[in-house]
Design goal:
Blueprint: E1 2-7, H1 16-19, E2 25-34, H2 39-50, E3 55-61, E4 66-72, H3 79-87, E5 91-93, H4 95-104, H5 113-131, H6 142-156, H7 158-169, H8 175-199, H9 210-234, H10 236-243, E6 248-252, E7 258-262, E8 271-274, E9 283-288, E10 291-294, H11 296-299, E11 305-307, E12 312-313, E13 318-319, E14 324-330, H12 336-349, H13 355-382, H14 387-400, H15 404-423, E15 426-428, H16 431-436, E16 442-446, H17 447-451, E17 457-463, H18 472-483, H19 489-500, E18 510-514, E19 518-523, E20 526-532, H20 533-538, H21 549-558, E21 562-569, E22 575-584, H22 591-600, E23 604-608, H23 613-623, E24 630-631, H24 639-648, E25 665-669, H25 675-680, E26 683-687, H26 692-697, E27 700-702, H27 708-743, H28 749-768
Parallel strand pairs: 16-23, 16-25, 23-24, 25-26, 26-27
Antiparallel strand pairs: 1-2, 2-4, 2-5, 3-4, 6-7, 6-8, 8-14, 9-12, 9-14, 10-11, 10-13, 15-27, 17-22, 18-19, 19-20, 20-21, 21-22
Helix pairs in contact: 5-6, 5-9, 6-8, 6-9, 7-8, 8-9, 8-14, 9-28, 12-15, 13-14, 14-27, 14-28, 15-27, 15-28, 18-19, 27-28
Length: 778
């Protein structure tokens, strides 16, 4: 899969006209990598891909066994990455091949055969050791021990030798190298002791070490199998999202007949029948029928929502008891479900910033372990130990020092956290947002559409200076004509009010939108401006025509209404006020309670709005905001500046001031004009009911318009980050404690092998505990 992401996104290029060169275009390629076993393997694969000319960015994920590459599309094809990965000793696989491998591994016992064979061959070798505490001293003949241990060492353990060989060729180290060296040393020492005794005509030594090498290989295989099973559970959320897409759609023909077609054959504008209990095949609107739809897997909302003609349906949701006809709007990669899957996959493939520490440690880990093993051997020999004892202690150091847990600590927690978030209607677009959200101490909310319902109503319409041949309804119809070209929610409110009065309007001959101000247009030969009071003041409107206007404005603002005015541009250029329009909006249910909960958690909560101060304070009083936490009269382009002020912690500070308190700010919004503020915030949180622009700029998307999910996002970020830290702590402490114990001879190779296998399983199992997370009830 190759996706062109943008032009000149990561490198600067001279203008095409000046340099005569094509603009640099970035492309992305995602594919699977088989054969990775530890963090050192990840580092090696990344280095191999980075050597390919044109590569700009590489991220390899051990838990998902995937590679994400950003490269210059002009320098070649993605086949070069597969060659680089194969030359490094690993198996490049396409997404289709990876899916087949995942399907083959879906059985709980998939891949268990080598483990079962290893246990069957190793058990007789361990049995005498198990009987010794009961006073039964019995040993298998040396030849039988050799016969049982050798297939385990060189047949079942062949994967470790292949991995070790590729690591040596790449002048690096990995888990395979440590296991291969350690178990080979134990097996070779046993063979040497046996053959030396046979050559001297003596009986074999009372204790050989065949069981140690065989059991270590078996335990490592068992650990990798358990680890693979656990990793499949971490990716269950993304597999569940893929399963939401039905395979067949019932296409309704022009003659009324139906035909079943694959969903990839649906086109925008097609009509498809959705029967009771079926999944909706694509995004669209209800053309006919009434029903209720279960969107819980997409939004986390447990209750079915009613749908009628004109309402939107999302592909993957489950139809209720009604038969409906769906008019298809978007299919394939353009659907909501596809974008959700893409966001989750991007977050799961990305590397958390804390992973950089792990990468630095992994780069030197294996060489350091080899040095420690050599020092252990030399130290015990100098201490007077016989060679076989010194070698076994060195082998134990090699076996216990496995970087598997380090490599898995972060990605398995990220995958599990983002997966459980998706199940509850939270989409983390990047790992940076997941890791930062728990540190937020200030949450700024846009008002309209975020804290309020976002469907303003025209609650008051006061005509000013009507002409003799003009009625109030005629003026409202003219203003509705101008507003019919606008997509602003206040414009829709004007149209709704005109419609409720039975008025007719026409599309304006000329119309232009002034961002943050309003709309200007011509209808019936007259030019009108409809927008904010600030815009009217900036345009030097003739306020003197009505001396009581200021009092009427103040009275309407005191009710909490959002005020707009309509101006008419006269022939001489003057602007004459023609009407005052007051709009009312209602708070979303439960918003005040959610804001109270956030404050109880020690968070500062701020409201940002373009409304006048009086209107903003009236709504703030209903929502429980203190006057000091209200930012009113904020133009859309200034919201980002307000966020930056909150980050600095000083309202009056200039942007260049230093040494001021630094706050971590989350911005919650839903509109196009919120995008700059969402991008400026440390964590941008977009309402899924809002615009695509807002969701693109935000690091977190709430799939339903419920501000309670803000608290859930912060909580899940804290839980996931805690799991990452716990995993890293145990992965580091395992080696910090285990290696010295092995060096001082306090562990056997078998115990070291068991501990090594257990470490990866424990790290993965600890991350899986995140699947039990549930949003806090209100």
């Amino acid at each position: 899969m190759i996706t062109i992401v943008d032009a000149m996104s990561t490198v600067s290029a001279p203008p095409v006209a000046d340099a005569g060169l094509a603009a640099s275009v970035s492309a992305m390629h995602d594919f699977s990598v088989g054969g990775m076993t530890c963090a050192s393997c990840v580092m090696r694969v990344e280095r191999a891909i980075k050597k390919v000319p044109g590569v700009r960015e590489v991220s390899v994920n051990l838990a998902t066994e995937t590679a994400h590459v950003v490269y210059d599309a002009a320098v070649g094809t993605d086949a070069r990455f597969a060659r680089a990965v194969r030359d490094a000793g690993y198996e490049p696989r396409s997404n289709a091949q990876a899916d087949l491998a995942a399907d083959a591994a879906a059985s709980p016992w998939a891949g268990a055969a080598p483990v079962v064979v290893g246990i069957a061959l190793s058990l007789p070798l361990v049995l005498p050791m198990a009987l010794a505490p009961f006073g039964i001293h019995w040993m298998l003949p040396a030849w039988l021990q050799f016969t049982l241990a050798t297939p385990v060492q060189f047949w079942l353990g062949a994967r470790f030798y292949r991995g070790a060989w590729h690591a040596i060729k790449g002048r690096t180290g990995n888990m395979d190298l440590l296991v291969a060296l350690g178990t080979s040393a134990g097996w070779a020492l046993s063979v040497w002791l046996w053959l030396d005794a046979a050559a001297a005509g003596r009986a074999a030594p009372p204790h050989l070490y065949f069981e140690a090498s065989a059991v270590v290989v078996t335990l490592v295989l068992l650990g990798k199998w358990l680890e693979a099973r656990a990793k499949r559970q971490t990716t269950s959320a993304i597999r569940a999202l893929h399963a939401l897409q039905p395979a067949i759609a019932h296409l309704r023909r022009a003659d009324g007949s139906e035909i079943d077609v694959p969903i990839n054959e649906l086109l925008a504008g097609d009509i498809a029948a959705v029967r009771p209990g079926e999944r909706v095949p694509a995004d669209g609107t209800v053309a006919e029928g009434l029903t209720e739809v279960d969107e819980s897997m997409l939004t986390g909302e447990p209750l079915p929502v009613p749908r009628q003609p004109g309402d939107r349906l999302t592909g993957g949701s489950i139809n209720g008891d009604g038969l409906v006809l769906l008019r298809v709007d978007a299919t394939g990669a353009g659907s909501v479900l596809a974008r959700i899957i893409q966001l989750v996959e991007q977050a799961q493939m990305a590397k958390a910033p804390i992973q950089r520490l792990v990468d630095k440690v992994s780069a030197v880990f294996v060489p350091v372990v080899l040095v420690l093993a050599a020092l252990t051997l030399i130290g015990w020999l100098l201490h007077g130990a016989v060679f076989e004892v010194a070698l076994i202690h060195a082998v134990t150091v090699l076996v216990i020092a496995c970087p598997c847990a380090l490599g898995l600590a972060t990605p398995v927690a990220v995958i599990t956290g983002t997966g459980v978030a998706a199940r509850h209607g939270l989409l983390f677009k990047d790992v940076q947002a997941l890791e930062t959200a728990h540190r937020v101490d200030t949450v700024a909310f846009d008002k309209t559409g975020t804290l309020t319902v976002g469907r303003p109503r025209l609650v008051a319409f006061e005509a000013l200076a009507l002409r003799e041949d003009e009625s109030e309804d005629a003026l409202l119809a003219a203003l509705a004509s101008v507003q019919s070209a606008s997509e602003h929610p206040l414009a829709w409110a004007v149209l709704d009010a005109a419609h409720s009065r039975g008025l007719k309007w026409t599309f304006p001959k000329q119309s232009r939108a002034v961002p943050g101000r309003g709309t200007e247009g011509q209808t019936d030969g007259r030019s009108y401006l409809i927008g904010s009071l600030r815009w009217a003041q900036e345009m030097d409107a003739d306020w003197a025509a009505d001396p009581s206007l200021a009092e009427r404005i103040a009275a309407l603002q005191a009710t909490g209404a959002t005020l707009s005015c309509a101006l008419e541009r006269l022939a001489d250029g003057r602007l004459r006020p023609r009407a005052l329009l007051a709009f009312g909006d209602e708070p979303k249910p439960g918003v005040a309670e959610v804001l109270h909960t956030l404050r109880q958690r020690g968070l500062r909560v701020v409201m940002i709005t373009g409304d006048s101060r009086a209107a903003a304070l009236a709504m703030a009083d209903r929502l429980g905001f203190a006057a000091a936490e209200v930012r009113a009269d904020v133009l859309p382009g200034d919201k980002a500046a307000v966020v930056q002020q909150l980050q600095r912690g000083d309202e009056q500070a200039a942007p260049s001031d230093e040494g001021l308190p630094r706050h971590v700010v989350a911005m919650v919004g839903d509109g196009v004009n919120d995008a700059p503020a969402l991008a400026a915030a440390d964590v941008g949180i977009a309402m899924g009911t809002g615009t695509d622009v807002a969701m693109h700029a935000a690091g977190i998307t709430l799939m339903r318009g419920d501000v309670a999910l803000v608290a859930s996002a912060l909580d899940l970020s804290a839980r996931t980050t805690a799991k990452i830290r716990q995993n890293l702590f145990w992965a580091f402490i395992y080696n910090v404690l285990g290696i010295p114990l092995a060096m001082f001879g306090l562990l056997s190779p078998v115990a070291a092998g068991a501990a090594m296998a257990l470490s990866s399983v424990c790290v993965t199992g600890n991350a899986l505990l995140l699947r039990r997370w549930q949003p806090r009830p209100r």
